Amino acid sequence: MNIDLILQNVLNPPILFFFLGMLAVFVKSDLDVPQPLPKFFSLFLLISIGLQGGYKLHSGGFGLDILLVLSLAMFMAVLVPIYTFFILRLKLDVYNAAAIAATYGSISAVTFVTAGTFLNAVGVHYDGFMVAAMALMESPAIIIGLILVSIFARNDNAKERIEWGELLRESFFNGSVLLLVGSMVIGLLVGEKGWKTMEPFFGDLFKPMLAFFLLDMGLVAARQLGAIKKVGGFLLAFGIMVPIFNAMLAISLAKFFGFEKGNAFMFSILCASASYIAVPAALRLSIPEANPSIYVTMSLAITFPFNIIFGIPIYYSAVNFLWG
Predict the structure, then answer these.
(1) If 0-12 CB within 10 Å is exposed, 13-18 middle and 19+ buried, where does residue 123 land?
(2) From CA 238, how far away is CA 207, in angstroms rounded?
(3) Euclidean distance between CA atoms 313 and 11, whole angstroms
């Protein structure tokens, strides 16, 4: 891996604000982001991603190649939680294993955005329909996690507690998924003319808003670091090694099925990331037996910083080696 790629990724204003947030916690500064604002930053980023993805999808059309990418995205969203569940069962009970598997089967939109910024910096194009792939990968892992619980939980009453209707509604119509998909549909409908009217806000302000969001994420991640001691060496290794494995599997599939270079990289990012917003919110309701401090800590304090600092350059180096 080229050290220049790591430096190019890290020496990026939004990434540096992430570290500034962590530093503020380490030095016990009173720096804080008022709680309504992180929610606003999150909504802004989702709308911006969705609009741009829809606009690019409108410009590029819809063909079999796009259908292939979206199908593989769904395939990985189903496959990852299944095999990670059996790895986790070596050390954990059914509930925590299923919750962590669901978390790693889903995706992190912020990691996707950061990877897109990195890709723009190195001058590699990716298609707007990768946003659709991201939206499709957000929810299936929750369903798979609950199916695993219903099959493997020793307590048969668990089957009765699962409210499948509510679960499906929460999985596919939770706020993040609805806003992302809705924004993408709007971008698809309005096309370039509509996007130009929104670009001064949702285009030009994208990186400053990302910097604010990552500043808050740095604060939150640093506050979670103390909980790493509780997850133990096995889960710490899982939080680093499994994303790398998922990314390499995704890159192999992308190469086999002939993805373009930028799309292959973004596909690997989606498969390597773990959810820390949508899936934990759903799991608190659907698998209350699982410990949130474990799966949230793993995704937010281990995998997210690893992907931001090292994962993005590692996955890009692998893609660059294969695609040239």
Answers:
(1) exposed
(2) 31
(3) 12
Distance CA 41, CA 214 (A): 9
DSSP codes of every residue in 68-110 = HHHHHHHHHHHHHHHHHHHHHTTTS-HHHHHHHHHHHHS--HH
Q: Which pLDDT tens digit goes with each residue over 186-244? A: 988 998 889 899 989 988 898 888 888 888 888 887 887 776 766 688 999 999 999 99
Phi, psi of 156 (to 5 degrees): -60, -20
Separation between Cα atoms, residue 32 and residue 215, nearest integer Å: 9
Q: CA 313 from chain center: how many Å?
A: 16
pTM: 0.82
Query: DSSP assignment of 165-209, as one string?
Result: HHHHHHHHHSHHHHHHHHHHHHHHHHHHHHHHHHHHHHTTTHHHH
Q: What is the pLDDT of residues 237-253, one digit of tens each?
A: 999 999 999 999 999 99
Q: At a CB cut-off of 8 Å and minimum separation 6, what does 159 contact? A: 150, 153
